[in-house]
Write a sequence for this structure.
């Protein structure tokens, strides 16, 4: 095992894209990386069972994706440690433990948001992952669960996990109801409480605190960054991915001219052809790109053509080129 004192430092959490199941796969991440070099990308949540006992390769990624964080779902420190070690050998930059997902399926596996009630176990898991992998480990959490939603409860949870070496928390500024609400409702129904996350940063200034939940624009990100260290966006980026083209300049101070939408598309073609040659169907990649031309004349025709033709066996980049011909970027 690797001594936790030798752990690598965290990559920047100033701006990141949330882990989203069935969405932020390797194809999505490659696409997103073309538009921002500094954004921290996350995998979908991957369970320890899938990594340790599954038949597929759940740690697949492209070298171009860095920096990229693997989000793990699990509760057993030993399984999490073995999974983190496997991730380290595959070159991930960071590990994140999911302590925020409220779905029934996740709860039945004893991980996700229900782990907020087991701060000591989360702390032990974090230490085990750090020791086994040498990678920095962060925790993505809610501000509370069910009736355990006081600020004191949140601070107690943070204090316990912090005591075992975790120094980075991504906080969804809503509590989670573990029963009675669907995962979608849990993203919208519990009220946002940004002030509680701000206060967390005030009371734990030594920690890196990033905020998540209901954030839609880079101007909102800038406002939040006056109070916390980082901002995480999710579905808004997926629906309107070209927002990423402004991230490096607006949030990281880079002066490099961003790629145009069509330049992004041109850079995707060689990657797409490479994946098609390996048996990947076009739609597995194209579905992540439907929002590329959001707001431009022809965007609807672009989406419709890809949706209607991208799933057809044997479809190639000519389908995407035809779809792009309907768009007027000027």
């Amino acid at each position: 095992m690797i001594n936790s004192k030798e752990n690598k430092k965290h990559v920047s959490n100033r701006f990141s894209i949330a882990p989203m199941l069935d969405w932020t796969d390797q194809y999505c991440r490659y696409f997103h990386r073309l538009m921002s070099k500094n954004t921290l990308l996350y995998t979908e949540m991957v369970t320890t069972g899938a990594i340790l006992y599954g038949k597929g390769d759940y740690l697949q990624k492209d070298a171009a994706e860095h920096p990229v964080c693997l989000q793990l779902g699990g509760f057993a420190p030993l399984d999490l440690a073995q999974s983190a070690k496997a991730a380290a050998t595959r070159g991930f930059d960071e590990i994140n433990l999911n302590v925020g997902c409220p779905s029934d399926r996740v709860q039945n596996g004893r991980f996700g948001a229900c782990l907020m009630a087991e701060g000591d176990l989360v702390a032990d898991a974090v230490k085990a992952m750090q020791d086994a992998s040498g990678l920095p480990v962060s925790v993505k959490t809610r501000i509370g669960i069910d009736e355990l939603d006081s600020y004191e409860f949140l601070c107690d949870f943070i204090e316990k996990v912090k005591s075992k070496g975790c120094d980075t928390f991504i906080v969804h500024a809503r509590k989670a109801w573990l029963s009675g609400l669907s995962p979608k409702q849990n993203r919208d129904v519990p009220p946002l409480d940004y002030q509680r996350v701000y206060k967390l940063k005030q009371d734990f200034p030594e920690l890196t605190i990033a905020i998540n939940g209901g954030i839609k624009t880079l101007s909102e990100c800038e406002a939040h960054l006056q109070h916390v260290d980082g901002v995480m966006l999710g579905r808004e980026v997926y629906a309107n991915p070209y927002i990423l083209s402004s991230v490096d300049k607006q949030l990281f101070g880079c002066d490099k001219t961003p790629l145009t939408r069509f330049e992004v598309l041109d850079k995707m073609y060689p990657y797409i052809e490479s994946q098609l040659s390996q048996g990947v169907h076009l739609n597995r990649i194209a579905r992540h790109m439907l929002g590329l031309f959001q707001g431009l004349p022809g965007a609807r025709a672009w989406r419709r053509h890809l949706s209607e033709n991208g799933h057809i066996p044997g479809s190639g980049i000519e389908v995407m080129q035809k779809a792009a011909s309907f768009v007027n970027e000027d």
